[in-house]
Design a protein that fits this description.
Layout: H1 18-43, H2 46-50, E1 54-59, H3 66-75, E2 87-92, H4 99-107, E3 115-118, H5 126-129, E4 142-146, E5 152-157, E6 173-176, H6 183-195, E7 199-202, H7 208-217, E8 222-227, H8 228-234, H9 236-240, E9 244-250, H10 271-281, E10 289-292, H11 298-313, H12 315-323, E11 331-332, H13 333-344, H14 348-362
Parallel strand pairs: 1-2, 1-3, 6-7, 6-8
Antiparallel strand pairs: 3-10, 4-10, 4-11, 5-8, 5-9
Length: 368
């Protein structure tokens, strides 16, 4: 028997009927998926997201200094105010007066709300002043708030031979610094350029506590840009025992503890000098600022900002701060944003001159 070869013919669908049906079905499926995606994305609440997670609080300075003390205090209490009660893990990331951390948060850190940090109060002004190495836009961070409004001071060690401000106009005082964007470096540079003081900055210390130890060892003769609240919290015995002398207050207003110590803006001799000093020392209102990377989802951003301000009113937090003699007079995120925006609108001529003063001085006195 011979088998005849069989030819398979292609299947043909009717032009009307089945094809339109398939097309309508596909369109309906795509529409259903499109509608489902946003719902799935929003299905996870803020509490669901944070539950069981670790949230890092990064500190732009080494351990033991004022910024570190304040940040770790916050870390011990803020977790209970974040929905889902995540575990808060503080960690130091020192470098260049917190500029390393500022750049990392802006350019590298995850933007999901699991990381935020504390930088120097002057660091957000670096791009405004044209400071080299500042690779961020301060208006785009997620600002959480600040723990206090700060007054900084310049002090001399008791063996330095400098006991009052007037001597700084005639005698050199070597002070320690933590980096070109830090108060410890920028504040003495500006007073040198505007008022004629003779600070010599030895820069490169990891944090303020390291500068304090350097004073004890005789490596430096003083410290400038030191938060008065940090002196009170960590070295008040030095002040009482007259191991340090407070020479100058660096802020827009005097601290009530130091009525007889001169205020930097009161020493200006011209309107231009006063404008430069006000630009530089306006940052003091930022005190101890906390921020997260730009791009954090809106609901988590709002939760972090709310948690920060709730912590500032927390009874256990306030009690611990009082016991440690830490000043708490907080600012919210909106207040920080306003200060930075106003600084950016400073007269361009004043900005240019202040920036030139900082850049010229920053090339001198590097720590060996």
């Amino acid at each position: 028997m011979r088998l005849r070869s069989m030819r398979l013919r292609p299947m043909r669908f009717p032009s009307r009927g089945l094809i339109p049906c398939i097309r309508r079905l596909a369109t309906a499926c795509v529409a259903a998926v499109a509608l489902a995606l946003p719902a799935a994305a929003n299905a996870q609440s803020v509490a669901d997201f944070y539950k069981g997670k670790n949230v890092e609080v990064l500190i732009g300075y080494s351990g033991g200094g004022g910024y570190d003390v304040y940040a770790r205090l916050l870390a011990r209490h803020i977790g209970k105010h974040i929905p889902g009660n995540p575990t808060i893990v503080p960690r130091n990331m020192p470098g260049a007066g917190s500029l390393v951390l500022a750049n990392w948060l802006y350019n590298v850190a995850p933007k999901d709300g699991t990381v935020f940090g504390m930088i120097g109060r002057g660091t957000p002004f670096d791009p405004i002043l044209g400071i080299e190495g500042a690779k961020f836009d301060p208006t785009k961070y997620l600002w959480l708030g600040s723990m206090n409004n700060e007054v900084s001071v310049c002090v001399s060690w008791h063996t330095s031979g400098v006991t009052k401000f007037e001597q700084l106009l005639q005698k050199e005082l070597v002070v320690g610094g933590t980096g070109p964007s830090a108060d410890t470096d920028q504040f003495p540079r500006i007073t040198n350029a505007v008022l004629g003081t003779k600070f010599r900055i030895i820069s490169g210390y990891p944090g303020g506590n390291d500068i304090s130890l350097a004073m004890e060892r005789g490596e430096v003769g003083g410290r400038c840009g030191w938060s008065w609240s940090s002196v009170v919290a960590t070295r008040m015995n030095w002040f009482k025992e007259k191991k340090i002398r407070v020479l100058l207050q660096l802020a827009l207003e005097k601290h009530e503890d130091l009525p007889d110590v001169p205020l930097v803006v009161d020493l200006a001799k011209t309107p231009e000098q006063r404008a430069i000093l006000r630009l530089i020392f306006a940052r003091q209102a930022l005190g101890r600022p906390f921020l997260a990377p730009p791009g954090v989802p809106q609901d988590r951003a709002a939760a972090l900002q709310k948690a920060f301000m709730a912590t500032m009113k927390d009874k256990a937090f306030r009690a611990e701060a009082e016991k440690a003699k830490l000043e708490i007079n907080s600012l919210d995120a909106a207040a920080i944003e306003k200060i930075i925006e106003e600084a950016a609108k400073t007269n361009p001529a004043v900005l240019k001159k202040a920036a030139a003063m900082l850049q010229v001085e920053s090339r001198k006195g590097k720590k060996k």
